[in-house]
Design goal:
By secondary structure, the chain is mostly beta strands. The strands form 13 sheets. Strands 2, 3, 32, 33, 34, 35, 36, 37 and 38 form a 9-stranded antiparallel sheet that branches. Strand 19 and strand 20 form a beta hairpin. The longest helix is centred in the N-terminal third of the chain and has 12 residues. The radius of gyration is 40 Å and the shape is elongated. The two termini are 53 Å apart.
Length: 765
């Protein structure tokens, strides 16, 4: 048994996590101002900034749909013609006419993984897996240019001398190939894969690796311009926290940018990861979270993914590191969920990230701010290159498409919020918002409401426009769900507007509180707060309430409080239980879907009676104990009435009530009758009857000559009646006088005792 001090500490520890608002007003506010909140909405020509702003996005236009499952790389030749490499048959397309791409290369390998041009517009194509490097002349002549005899060709890069570098796996080799097709190992890393390559300002080769996520710088040494280059000193510029460096990028200031993905698994050997799910139409396993929630208020194979052999599913998210010219690293961006497959530079010199598996393009704006500027119709963005007119060309996978990004902003755009569930039928009030001065006159708001979770059908029409940031009352019918829309108009010229937050007032219809469960405690238990019992030692006892069976109808748990002004909190401490004879205790659980404060009243009546009598009126705790010695013995029922009157006007307050199970009160002690001792037999036999006024007797015991108490069972063994007969055979008593004491008790701990003194005669030998 734990001490009262231990019980007190436990009760406090439990109570500290049970926080509820100390008041609940029906007028509430739905406010959105965070990136995570806006990200759940639908942006069309609108960028979502990580600092919680909505603003016009760069122009984003579909350029070509070449009808390929995957595109890996984009390149432009000296004439400005665009080429795209992909699969799932290794293929390279030329897009003179975006609507009718021309196939210029095709082979039996699975994918054309990388492409590069030399100064004469010869196209080199690296294929995977078990692939080769092919050469395609401007006249269309195709030949095998170099065979590295390795599993994967990940990247190709051409230096100013016309030497091509080939990054491969799974031996982590980088090959150098001269214009005549002669190649040799340029650098043998300790890594399994040379995953990405680029050149720094001094012509050194940068290598991104897998599985330790290294960025290596290797000097390129030549005896003369025609000689095969050799590797000079190698230096680890940075070790990323991720597994695989998927993309490397440099700028004019000598900065190096490295994108890496996946969680490192020390000792494990895995293939690099492109993390592409099955092409559209293939089944994927749905993630179904499962949880078992036990609130003890009374103590009592997925479908297979179809993917390329060198594609796996990483965990661990992604990060982008900036390595300055002096070698100092700086984390620009990281994510636990997104993956980065490509990087590029926008016309405004912002770093662009091609991500998966939502096909989003991010722009790193500086000062730890980034923007989600476009969402493609594909799962992954795999290549970003600069176009001839300031635009960025974008390739995607699953499915393979090509888009253009920028220059300039969309002339108009819209953003639809996610659907807000008020949980309860509600009336809608003022919609207000805030943006900079450029937003005045360039942003209009609309709202619509409905009673289904999906706004696609059977909702009200969009009401608006609402242009006043200070707020206008929306003309939407009362309902459970609502959604707002921001429309940016004529934003291509002049300063760029933005919206920082949007707020909508609403008032849920008042609904009656619900009493989930009522639990009458065992007799003789007193429940109270932290004040110790008025007298006598404190004997702790458990108080228990059954798990409530809440309705799963239209009223789930209440919505959270307005983030603009968090409500004060109070601690709802569970009661302590103490043994206190003559007391009865009741506990109950209740909730209110409006999150209203509740007040309770308790009534009682005896079995067979019709009228309810007041036991305790208007209090807030969810337990009550009372002295039952003022009540006649018998069976009773309780009725708990809950009212939300503290949070509502008198004419709008609602009540609910619930009756308890039958329980008994018994304070009259039992009786012992016909206590006799028969000494005539060889064994002394003591007999008596125990009689209770109402309930069954719980136990009986006896003591011989003030010795230890021993239990005795009634005739028939079961103590299940208010009248029981007992026989106690006693052997081994010496001749002379003896005393036997007997005691009986009912389940309410009412007890009675008696004794009998008798003489055992001397037995003849």
């Amino acid at each position: 048994m734990i001490s009262s001090r231990q019980f007190l500490v436990c009760a406090l520890a439990i109570g500290l996590v049970a926080t509820v608002s100390t008041f609940a007003e029906h007028t509430r506010t739905w406010r959105q101002s965070e990136f995570s909140e806006f990200e759940r909405g639908t942006a069309n020509g609108v960028a979502i900034r990580s600092d919680g702003k909505l603003m016009p996005a760069p122009k984003f236009t579909s350029f070509s749909d070449p009808n390929l499952a995957y595109l890996w790389a984009l390149r432009m030749d000296s004439k400005g013609r665009l080429y795209a490499a992909g699969g799932s048959n290794a293929k390279v397309l030329r897009l003179d006419d975006p609507a009718k791409p021309t196939t210029v290369f095709e082979s039996g390998e699975l994918a054309a993984q990388a492409i590069v041009f030399d100064s004469h517009d010869n196209l080199y194509v690296g294929t995977s897996p078990d692939g080769k490097v092919y050469k395609l002349t401007p006249e269309g002549q195709k030949s095998v240019f170099f065979d590295p005899k390795t599993k994967y060709i990940w990247a190709l890069a051409m230096d100013s001398q016309g030497t091509m570098f080939v990054a491969t796996g799974d031996k982590g080799e980088v090959f150098a190939v001269t214009p005549d097709g002669k190649g040799q190992v340029f650098y043998q890393s300790d890594e399994r894969h040379a995953r990405s390559i680029a050149f720094d300002q001094k012509g050194n080769l940068l290598i991104g690796t897998d599985p330790n996520g290294l960025v290596l710088r290797v000097a390129v040494v030549r005896k003369n311009s025609q000689a095969m280059p050799e590797s000079g000193s190698a230096f680890v510029v940075h070790e990323t926290s991720k597994k695989e460096v998927t993309s490397l990028l440099t700028d004019e200031q000598g900065n190096i940018y490295a994108a890496s993905i996946g969680e490192k698994q020390r000792g494990a050997v895995t293939a690099p990861i492109l993390n592409l799910p099955p092409p559209s139409g293939q089944p994927q396993a749905a993630a179904t979270p499962q949880a078992s929630v036990t609130l003890q208020l009374q103590a009592q194979a997925s479908p297979p993914n179809i993917s390329f052999p060198f594609i796996s599913s990483p965990t661990g998210g992604a990060e982008v590191i900036k390595i300055s010219a002096d070698g100092a690293p700086e984390t620009l961006w990281s994510s636990r969920d997104e993956l980065v497959f490509a990087m590029g530079l926008s016309s405004s010199r912002h770093i662009l990230l091609g991500t998966g598996n939502k096909g989003v393009i991010l722009s790193l704006e500086g000062n730890d701010v980034y923007s989600s500027i476009a969402k493609t119709a594909s799962a992954q963005v795999t290549s970003l290159i600069s176009g001839r007119n300031g635009e960025t060309l974008v390739a995607t996978a699953n499915p393979g498409k090509i888009f253009t990004l920028g220059p300039g902003y969309e002339r108009s755009g819209s953003f639809e919020s996610d659907t807000f569930d008020a949980k309860i039928f509600s009336h809608w009030g003022r919609l207000s918002w805030w943006g900079d001065s450029a937003a005045q006159g360039k942003v209009e708001f609309y709202a619509r409401s409905g009673n289904t979770s999906s706004p696609q059908k059977n909702w009200s029409a969009w009401a608006g426009p609402y242009k006043n940031p200070a707020g206008e009352t929306v003309d939407c019918p009362a309902a459970r769900f609502i959604q707002w829309k921001a429309v940016f108009v004529d934003t291509a010229a002049g300063s760029v507007p933005n919206v920082s937050w949007v707020s909508l007032a609403y008032q849920p219809k008042n609904v009656a509180p619900v009493i989930d469960d009522i639990a009458i405690q065992d007799p003789g238990i007193r429940a109270q707060g932290f004040t110790p019992p008025p007298s006598g030692p404190a004997i702790p006892a458990s108080v228990q309430l059954r798990q409530p069976q809440r309705s799963t109808g239209n009223f789930p748990a209440p919505v959270s409080a307005n983030p603009e002004a968090a409500r004060p909190l109070k601690i709802e401490v569970p009661p302590q239980g103490f043994e206190d004879k003559g007391y009865a205790s009741v506990l109950w659980s209740a909730h209110d879907d409006n999150d209203d404060d509740l007040v309770y009243t308790i009534y009682y009546h005896g079995e067979g009676e019709k009228n309810w009598r007041l036991l305790k009126g208007k209090f807030t705790q969810k337990y009550y104990s009372w002295d039952t010695t003022t009540m006649p013995d018998g069976a009773y029922y309780l009725k708990i009435v809950a009212s939300d009157s503290p949070s509502n006007p008198a004419d709008q307050a609602l009540t609910t009530e619930r009756e308890s199970d039958r329980f008994e009160v018994e304070n009259t002690p039992p009786r012992i009758e016909n206590l006799r001792a028969d000494t005539a037999a060889p064994l002394v036999k003591v007999t008596f009857q125990g009689i209770s006024s109402a309930s069954a007797l719980a136990r009986a015991q006896y003591s011989v000559d003030a010795g230890d108490w021993s239990l005795v069972f009634p005739e028939g063994l079961l103590s299940d009646a208010p009248r029981e007969s007992y026989q106690i055979p006693i052997s081994g008593l010496a001749a002379g006088e003896h005393t036997v004491a007997v005691q009986i008790a009912d389940r309410f701990e009412n007890s009675a005792a008696a004794k009998i003194t008798f003489t055992v005669p001397a037995r003849s030998k």
